[in-house]
Recover the amino acids of this structure.
């Protein structure tokens, strides 16, 4: 099979590409033209990495036309809830309008291509304790421009599947982490700081934000496997949560990482690390995905964090060497 991954140089995109290649598929991917520093670690041939921005509808259409994929995983987008408050139009333009450009390009292809559209659990937003675990029928109550843009694109994907006949499966991943994640995300941020302490590159202090929010984390390798199973077995037009079903506070995550690193750093709460409109609790149910595809998480949580710490050991060693 031939697949196209938008945002292939991103965290989940790189993991997904490696899995598809290991399964014997041909894989193409789009990256932003300025993302050249990330493409060097991609497992794709150079001529299979195609520069494109979601805002450029003609370029998106050209990439789809040239690659003629059997499946398209739409992962590219505006990814930062915090940054979306500074640039809400950018979040809407990339996540909503960019998705519309992808949908139109595939529809114009005129041949069968299933889309796995990847949204976000942030679209659920302000949930209550009665909503936990969150299912796919939980109403959207988004609290950030990023979350609004994902909720709107999710509804657009449903509309295109029903009114336009597009074969699209909607995925709503909850938090995920693992090797290769940028330090702007909480688990990787903590791990990078700890390994910098371990290497003597910073004082024995860890800067943190709100440690009392509860999130549902999975390993990115399990999440990538869920995307593939959704392409293979998901029902067109339907939405599926991808999550572990286990809630962990950021305090628990930090404590586990500290224990695994065998360090004893001072923990400092930094005001600038506090999120605006932070959702206190997001824990989901993947029962619908499990029933449709048989997916279940396979990687133990502590193994994920060990691998993340080891990944930062490699990255900081390369950076300093």
């Amino acid at each position: 099979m031939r697949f196209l991954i938008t945002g292939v140089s991103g965290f989940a995109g790189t993991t997904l590409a490696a899995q598809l290649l290991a399964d014997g598929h041909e894989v193409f991917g789009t990256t932003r033209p300025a993302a050249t520093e990330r493409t060097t670690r991609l497992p794709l041939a150079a001529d299979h990495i195609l520069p494109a921005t979601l805002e450029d509808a003609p370029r998106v259409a050209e990439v789809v036309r040239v690659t003629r994929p059997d499946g398209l995983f739409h992962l590219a987008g505006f990814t930062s809830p915090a940054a979306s408050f500074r640039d809400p139009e950018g979040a809407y333009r990339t996540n909503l309008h960019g998705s519309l450009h992808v949908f139109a390009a595939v529809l114009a292809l005129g041949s069968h291509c299933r889309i796995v559209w990847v949204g976000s659990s942030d679209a659920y937003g302000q949930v209550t304790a009665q909503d936990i675990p969150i299912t796919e029928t939980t109403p959207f109550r988004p609290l950030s421009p990023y979350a609004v843009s994902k909720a709107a694109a999710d509804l657009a994907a449903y509309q295109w599947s029903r009114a336009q006949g597009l074969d699209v499966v909607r995925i709503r991943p909850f938090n995920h982490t693992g090797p290769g994640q940028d330090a702007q995300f909480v688990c990787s941020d903590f791990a990078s700081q700890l390994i910098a302490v371990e290497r003597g590159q910073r004082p024995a202090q860890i800067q943190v934000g709100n440690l009392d929010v509860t999130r549902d984390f999975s390993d990115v390798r399990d999440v990538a496997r869920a995307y593939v199973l959704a392409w293979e077995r998901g029902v067109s037009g339907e939405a599926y949560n991808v999550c572990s079903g286990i809630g962990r506070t950021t305090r628990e995550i930090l404590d586990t990482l500290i224990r695994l690193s065998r360090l004893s750093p001072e923990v400092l709460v930094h005001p600038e690390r506090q999120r605006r409109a932070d959702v206190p609790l997001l824990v989901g149910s993947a029962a619908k995905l499990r029933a449709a595809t048989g997916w279940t998480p396979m990687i133990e949580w502590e193994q994920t964090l060990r691998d993340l710490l080891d990944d930062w050991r490699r990255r900081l060693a390369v950076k300093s060497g």
Notes: The two ends are 40 Å apart (CA to CA).
